[in-house]
Amino acid sequence: MRHTRTATLAALLLLPLAACTTNDTASSKPSTPDVTVTPSAEEPADEPADEAEETGGSDGPYALTDTVAYENDVEVSLSKFARATSSEFASPEKTPYVKFTIKVVNGSSSTVDATGLTANCSYGEDGQTSESVFDEGLDGSPTTKLLAGRSINVPWGCELPKGEQVLQIEVSPDFESEAAIFTGSVK
């Protein structure tokens, strides 16, 4: 819980930096337009990813392409993986990273506080800590609540050195839900 609050605080402190970026997008474009995401070792590559039932963060890990459904009818999924290098105005600057979209679907009958959405990443076989990247279009958690029956797509970036492929992403859709752990390879 303390790590989540620290990550959220760090994201809030870096938001003013994101507002100071320029429109120089040449350095923030994906370095390879097609990124291949392979499933985690627990799931064979030839079988389609089934929807996984999440019961509080203890199940999993899930493949990078899985959809995790919480008991409160909120779903989280990841998509649109692309490698890029952050701009000179980003935090951290000029750093190779992977950009992806976090989709949160609120299938419940109540509002979800999406301002509490967090994503923490690590990479490599030994689990090196990966910094979140704040650059143009990568602003961190949303600043809105998610009404019942609505969904939101949040672009996110995590440091991923060029020679690394193994990625782990822990996502919590709000302050009250435990993290779903996604893992797999990004080429």
Helix content range = under 10%
CATH class: Mainly Beta
End-to-end separation in angstroms reads 31 Å
Note the beta-strand portion.
Answer: 25-35%
Structural domain tally: 1
- Tell me about the biggest sheet? 6 strands, mixed
- The ordered H/E elements are HEEEEEEEEEEE
The CATH architecture category equals Sandwich
- CATH-derived topology: Immunoglobulin-like
Total number of beta strands? 11
Describe this structure in words.
With 187 residues, this protein is mainly beta. The chain has a single domain, classed as Immunoglobulin-like (Sandwich), CATH 2.60.40.1240. The chain is built from 1 helix and 11 strands. It has one helix spanning 2-19; strands spanning 37-38, 52-53, 62-63, 67-69, 74-85, 96-106, 118-123, 128-130, 151-159, 166-172, 180-186. The strands form 2 sheets. Strands 1, 3, 7, 8, 10 and 11 form a 6-stranded mixed sheet that branches. A 5-stranded mixed sheet has the order 2-4-5-6-9, with no helix packed on it. The radius of gyration is 16 Å and the shape is globular. The protein starts with a helix and ends with a strand. The model is unreliable at 1-58 (pLDDT under 50).
Short note summarizing the structure:
With about 190 residues, the chain is mostly beta strands. It has one helix and eleven strands.
